[in-house]
Amino acid sequence: MSHEDERRRHQRYPLRLPITLHRDGAQLAAHVINASEGGCLLLLSTPLEMGDVLEASIPLLGVPRTTLYVLRCQATPEGEYTVATRFDEDAGVQAASLSRLSRQ
């Protein structure tokens, strides 16, 4: 088991959901690559900084507008960026919804 696996508290589910992020009054288009009850991994064309605060809603996950906190950002070979985020504690993402969506 890797160090990263040991730190994870929630199972991750592979997804490919479009999402609109809001940061400082600007909208950013992104995709949710995977998600857990604690956060999600995003793919977008704009780099973000650790500590950035985003607002988003993810209707398919039953998440109303909530806050996402950027944990890290990494460039991909394709010129995009994967961005690890943590949900606000009140987001209410349910594992059952994630599991159902990952199988679709």
What does this structure look like?
- With 104 residues, this protein is mostly beta strands.
- The protein contains 2 helices and 6 strands.
- The protein has helices spanning 3-7, 95-102, and strands spanning 13-23, 26-35, 39-44, 53-58, 63-75, 81-87.
- A 6-stranded antiparallel β-barrel has the order 1-2-3-6-5-4.
- Strand 1 (13-23) and strand 2 form a beta hairpin.
- The longest helix is centred in the C-terminal third of the chain and has 8 residues, at 95-102.
- The model has no long low-confidence stretch (mean pLDDT 82).
Brief digest:
With 104 residues, the chain is mainly β. It has helices at 3-7, 95-102; strands at residues 13-23, 26-35, 39-44, 53-58, 63-75, 81-87.
List descriptors.
mainly beta, single chain, 104 residues, 51% strand
SSE order and pairing:
Layout: H1 3-7, E1 13-23, E2 26-35, E3 39-44, E4 53-58, E5 63-75, E6 81-87, H2 95-102
Antiparallel strand pairs: 1-2, 1-4, 2-3, 3-6, 4-5, 5-6
Ends apart, CA distance between termini = 28 Å
Strand residue percentage: over 45%
Physical arrangement of strands within the biggest beta sheet: 1-2-3-6-5-4
Spatial shape: globular
If helices are DSSP runs of H or I spanning 4 or more residues, what is the number of helices?
2
Radius of gyration: 13 Å
* Oligomeric description of these chains: single chain
Number of strands: 6
Kindly report the average pLDDT value: 82
Major beta sheet summary: 6 strands, antiparallel, barrel
* Helical fraction: 10-25%
H/E element sequence: HEEEEEEH
Low-confidence stretches: none
Tell me the structural class. mainly beta
